[in-house]
Amino acid sequence: MRLKQLFILSITFCCFAGFYMNPLAAKQKRTTRPNIIFIFCDNLGYGDIEPFGSTLHRTPHLNRMAKEGRKFTHCYSASGVCTPSRAALMTGCYPRRISMTMTDGWVLRPVSQFGLHPQEFTVAEMMKKAGYATSIFGKWHLGDQPEFLPNAQGFDHFMGIPYSDDMTPREGTNWPDLPLMVNDQVIEAPCDRDMLAQKLTEAACEWIVDNKDEPFFLYFPQCMPGSTRTPFASEPFRGKSKNGPWGDSIEEIDWSLGEMVRTLEENGLRENTLIVWTSDNGAPRRNPVQGTNKPLAGWGYTTSEGGMRVPCIMSWPGQIAAGSVCPELCTMMDFLPTFAAMTNTPLPTERIIDGQNIEPLLFDKKASTPYEAFYYYQKFQLQAVRSGPWKLNLDITLAAQGKNGKPRKRPASLFHLVDDPFETKNVVADHPEIVARLEKLAEKARRTLGDANREGTEIRPHGIHKNPKPILKQ
To answer: Band of the pLDDT at 29, cuts 50, 70, 90?
Structure first.
């Protein structure tokens, strides 16, 4: 009898141990659909926050988030500039596939005839399909005509600005005063940019409380550090950092995260809320220097690692391992299919979605990237490809930059991004077999997504609105 009892106990222990150690079993424990808060900063660099190495900016709330969650150290935007990167996040597609790599220029401008096509399936539309309340607080920048604005793209509620904070009236344009909007109405023009983070955070926290009894998706694309030479911050943060206005704005962004976490905790929501915190692209080159992408090479608005690899932290208490790090490649395109999997929501089958379901990367420390290749596009041009740890900068002619710039030939270069994140050791001559394999992957992208002077076979159009009008306060 004694032996039989011991046998039963041992079997029971093994079953329970297997349940808690098996990532698939852990997934079965997630019986309720999480609330999701997605925070998307504007032009914030890889090394601009303490969890990713900053010694200038105080980010205690991000420190706590990293301690309680997981850092993703190889997370990529799908572009080095904001309109294409936001289009990729919303649709799960390379911007080149949905014709959002180049519209008015690098990014959409006020009173543009272009925007994200209304027939694209956005992450907000997917979350609504799953039964979630949806909202956006912050910078949109995917079109400012009625059919392109957030309320027409799946969001129940919108409060924010329709494009970048630097897009204010200029000589020779019909650009209006920068509007602060609630849904389709302008409530303030010109908006007080110093107060944007405060106002939007307070409104987001109120919305969380108002929607606490149903699952919700809150998208918070922060307006800062932004695109102006002197980023904005409210009085409690202005002049308080060690890095001027850039640092002031980052420390206020950190405060904003803390306020949302506090609201979740006060309303008993934190345990069932996934928070994702990241940036749309790397910090741009400024003189004097403001942001930093260290230890990565290069600046925002480029296809360098510093331009497209971004800081990313995800936290979900009791589900994502605390204090953990994921070194596997993932991208902004992955959140739509990942959130669809989390909420058991089917995706459209009649169109290509480039992103991957990265649930295993969130919950399983041993999971590997689902990507065979990741493509770096600037405007229409394919400039680099990554597979595994290897990044091949392609042998191309770079377009002229600036009024007096000239096209520039750039020979191929190969870097091992794990051993050489600053891209200092070009080993292209040492690994011809790797170069050949990555060139083959690049050609696959050229056929389907296109390249400079080459139309892809599997791309979709952006939206066009004839006779666009400025957004004005009535």
So the answer is: low
- Tell me if residue 289 falls in helix, strand or coil: coil
**Which residues have C-beta within 8 Å of that of residue 112, sequence separation ≥ 6?**
103, 104, 143, 144, 145, 468
Is 220 exposed, middle or buried, given 0-12, 13-18 or 19+ CB atoms closer than 10 A? buried
d(CA 154, CA 239): 38
Residue 3 CA to residue 208 CA, distance in Å, equals: 55
Question: What pTM was estimated for this model as a whole?
Answer: 0.93
Q: What is the CA radius of gyration of the chain?
A: 23
User: Which residues are within 8 A (CB) of 196 and not within 5 positions of it... i.e. 6 or more apart?
Assistant: 161, 165, 180, 223, 224, 232
Q: Is 82 a catalytic residue?
A: yes
List the catalytic residue out of 75, 82, 223, 326: 82
Q: Which of 295, 315, 291 is nearest to 305 (CA)?
A: 295
Which of 74, 117, 141, 157 is catalytic? The answer is 141
Instruction: Give the pLDDT band (50/70/90) at residue 14.
Output: very low
243-272 per-position pLDDT tens digit: 999 999 999 999 999 999 999 999 999 999
157 given a catalytic annotation: no
pLDDT digit string (tens) for 438-462?
Answer: 999 999 999 999 999 899 999 999 9
